[in-house]
Write a structure and sequence with these properties.
By secondary structure, this protein is of the alpha/beta class. 32% of the residues lie in helices and 31% in strands. Strands 3, 4, 5, 10, 11, 12, 13, 14 and 17 form a nine-stranded mixed beta sheet that branches. Strands 1, 2, 6, 7, 8, 9, 15 and 16 form an eight-stranded mixed beta sheet that branches. The longest helix has 17 residues, at 256-272. Bound molecules: flavin-adenine dinucleotide.
């Protein structure tokens, strides 16, 4: 493969890279190569270590249609042990993520290279030279969609997201309705455990590494979720998308939607050359609001008493009025109340809230 040249090189074929490849093709850019370090089998396994839940709103905003939605998601339930339970109606899907990625990449028609990026640097005459396990690739534009431990980020930007949270995901037999169940408790450093529906007869459960037991005989794996976005995700000719840019939501840790949407925006920036516009979009899009990280920092210090106090005013059916009254009664929880509201409003499209304690 040595000595490949292309106009746009995308590193990584996860949600961010696949979306970027698809949108580049839609925008008429055909000289695109996607480099992926994992074999087909390992790629499928890596991408199935995930809750695989994505909102309809994110798919729509990313301009992605998939025939691999395996379950509808109708509600999110947040429980705090004996302290309370909150149920929120939402619209989304559980997707078969490996198949969805294959579908998007196939539609893109991009050249696919099975190799690992080792390092990349700028060329004095413009463009980039990538050293990979299978030889060098020279490109004009580089999109780093290579996940939490991005090599593109390390080589070109020299920065990293504020936190890398190690998470375990296990697929176990079990029935579940279309509800995403989150269980929060104090002392979990702002994380939670989850119980999501999966494909027929299976559930996906997960938790922060070290805070739970891996279910026996489960199909499980560990990965990191990066939170706390970077000061800049674009430079002349180079863009970071998805986890490489630290875009997962710091409260719910969801990042598929952010990766798909940022992949599509990265493709637009690559075609227009508006690098600053990409950074400015991240700065202004409510999905990536810095208040989410503030809320995460605040929430990670909550005690069980705080959780109980914060839930109590929302007892029964929550309304926006109750939310305002809760903020007035407990201003010290305002950041978290507001960030949860923003997360549902801008990530999921809030349908209805009902809360029971
Ligand atoms: C356990 C777990 C559960 C999750 N559940 C959900 C969920 O239910 N909903 C949700 O919205 N989000 C969830 N997330 C977050 C979500 O998985 C990520 O935010 C999303 O995958 C980010 O996509 P990405 O394309 O940016 O990066 P990735 O999915 O990490 O893809 C990066 C790709 O780049 C490749 N790559 C990396 N380095 C190189 C290299 N040097 N050379 C070549 N290729 C390289 C990798 O092999 C990979 O294929 C979960 C995360 C974890 C860890």
């Amino acid at each position: 493969m040595d000595g490949i040249r292309c106009r746009v090189l995308i590193v990584g074929s996860g949600p961010a890279g696949a979306s970027a490849a698809y949108h580049l093709s839609r925008l008429g850019e055909k000289d695109v190569a996607v480099i992926e370090r994992l074999s087909e089998k390992a790629h499928s396994r890596y991408h199935s270590i995930c809750g695989e839940a994505v909102s309809d709103k994110s798919l729509r905003r990313a301009g992605i249609e998939t025939s691999h939605a395996v379950r509808r998601v109708e509600a999110i339930e947040i429980s705090c042990g004996s302290l309370g339970k909150t149920r929120i109606s939402v619209r989304g899907s559980i997707v078969d993520r490996p198949k969805m990625l294959e579908e998007i990449l196939e539609r893109s028609g991009a050249k696919r290279i099975r190799a690992s990026l080792r390092s990349v640097s700028r060329l004095p005459e413009g463009g980039f030279i990538a050293e990979t396990s299978a030889g060098t690739v020279v490109c004009d534009i580089l999109i780093g969609a290579d996940g939490a431990h991005s090599t593109v980020r390390k080589c070109i930007f020299g920065t990293r997201p504020e936190q890398l949270v190690p998470v375990i995901n296990a697929v176990v037999p079990g029935d579940s309705d279309g509800t995403l169940r989150f269980s929060v408790k104090a002392g979990d450093d702002g994380f939670y455990s989850w119980d999501f529906p999966s494909s027929a007869g299976r559930k996906s459960v997960g938790f922060r590494k070290g805070s739970g037991e891996i279910p026996e005989d489960s199909n499980h794996g560990a990965r990191c979720i990066p939170i706390g976005r970077l000061p800049h995700a674009a430079q002349e000719g180079c863009i970071l998308a998805g986890d490489a840019a630290g875009l997962p939501n710091p409260l719910c840790y969801g990042g598929i939607g952010a990766a798909l949407i940022s992949g599509s925006r990265a493709a637009e920036a690559a075609v227009s050359g508006d690098w600053r516009g990409y950074d400015s979009w991240i700065d202004h899009d409510r999905m990536f609001d810095r208040r989410f990280m503030d809320a995460h920092s605040s929430f990670s210090r909550w005690t069980d008493g705080d959780i109980q106090d914060a839930m109590r005013p929302l007892n029964g059916n929550a309304t926006i009025l109750k939310g305002f009254l809760a903020i007035l009664r407990h201003p010290k929880y305002a950041r978290v109340y507001m960030a949860c509201w923003m997360g549902f409003r801008f990530g999921w499209r809030l349908v209805l809230i009902s809360i029971r304690i």
